[in-house]
Amino acid sequence: MAILEKAPPGSRTYWIWTTCLLLVMVGAGLCYRLQLEHGLAITGMSQDISWGLYVAQFTFLVGVAASAVTVVLPYYLHNQRQFARMIVLGELLAVAAVTACMLFVIVDLGRPSRILNIVLHPMLRSLMFWDLIALSGYLLINFLVAIGTLHAEREHVPPPAWIKPVVLLSIPWAISIHTVTAFLYSGLPGRSYWLTAILAPRFLASAFSSGPALLIVLCLVLKKWAGFDVGTDAIRKLAVIVGYATAISMFFLLVEVFTTFYSGIPEPRAHLKYLFWGLGGSAAPVPWMWLSVLLNLLALILLLARRWWNDMRLLVMACASIFVSAWIEKGLGLLVGGFVPTSFGRVTGYAPTLPEGIIVLGIWAIGALVVTVTYKITLTVWQED
Fold first, then answer.
1. How far is CA 277 from the centre of its chain?
2. Measured distance CA(253)–CA(136) in Å, rounded
3. What distance, in Å, lies between the first and last C-alpha atoms of the chain?
């Protein structure tokens, strides 16, 4: 682990940023202690809405983690060498995302010890058991590949022979983690909004747009603030993947809308009406959902018009729009839309509480800290090389 020696040195901006993240984590720790004392009653969840902001972040970040395959696949299967330095960055982003995913699951359980029920008493029919296996395996795969690659570069030797088979294994594994997560939703027959065969493809399309969009923004931040350039060609090719994945994601959503309204089945239609037009006098998610749609359209226009690609500011705007749009759609629409209205037709509102929001920010800060430290180590190794 001599490579970890590269983490401590840093600029003043680096230390200010990490200190801010640590302060957010301390605040989240205090709120989580409050949750341990009083239970999930301090959150905005209720008997009608038993999944909230925690599970929403888990679902979204699983997609961010799975998106590492968008740089691994073209590099190893299609010999696109311009993605060479993006691979490690994508793998490390996946490590941070999966770490945050697992933390969101733990805080959503109320008592952390409950996770032992899955480990000590596994049930092969439980999708949560398979989701735990998929996430922990994917975390290990990405960590090993990133560490192995960086160690080889630090020692100025070729990567070990085991790296390529493990990387190739990560491709189907990445697809599996978001597929199993989708099955957690679509396997609940009482929730008609989630009961659709294309939920897993929707999740994957959204993941392959929002995750790479975040990676593009991070690469451009590294170029501006750290002087490290992964290459304009790599960024543009990844932007093409983001654009087409976004278009497919929107197509899947339109297919769901058509099927729901053309069939005239009341239950699925009620969920979409609540999200986009309001229901029972409640219209809380309506402006958010339309904002998500508009951001997606804006991003598509910016990404599909090649003459604007030379302006990196527009590319950042497009990627940020996709990321925020996906966060709204998965973080608000998917969860709340699946629970409201209830099976009895009740319209129950959900709004995260302040402690709940601070805990969420704290876990995001942990993910951001993992990205910051691992990227710092990576850049130090590359700059020395």
1. 27
2. 30
3. 18
Closest CA to 145 of 75, 194, 206, 244: 75
Q: Is the peptide bond before 172 cis (omega within 30 degrees of 0)?
A: no
Per-residue model confidence as pLDDT tens digits over 71-107: 888 888 887 888 888 888 999 999 999 999 999 999 9
Among all chains, which residue has been given the structure tokens 């009740």?
346
- The three-class DSSP label of residue 279 is strand
Question: How high does pLDDT run on average in the chain?
Answer: 88
Dmax (CA) for the chain in angstroms is 65
Collapse the DSSP code of 10 into the 3-class scheme (helix H, G, I; strand E, B; otherwise coil) and give the result: coil
Residue ranges in 312-353 assigned as alpha helix (H): 312-328, 335-339
Mean local confidence (pLDDT), 30-51:
92
Residue 309: C-alpha distances to residues 18, 57, 61, 305, 345 (Å): 32, 31, 27, 7, 48
What is the rounded CA–CA span in Å between residue 349 and residue 217? Answer: 34
- Spell out the residues 6+ positions from residue 294 whose beta carbon is closer than 8 angstroms to its own: none
pLDDT digits (tens, 9 = 90+) for 188-220: 888 889 999 999 999 999 999 999 999 999 999
Q: Are 24 and 362 in contact (CB under 8 A)?
A: yes
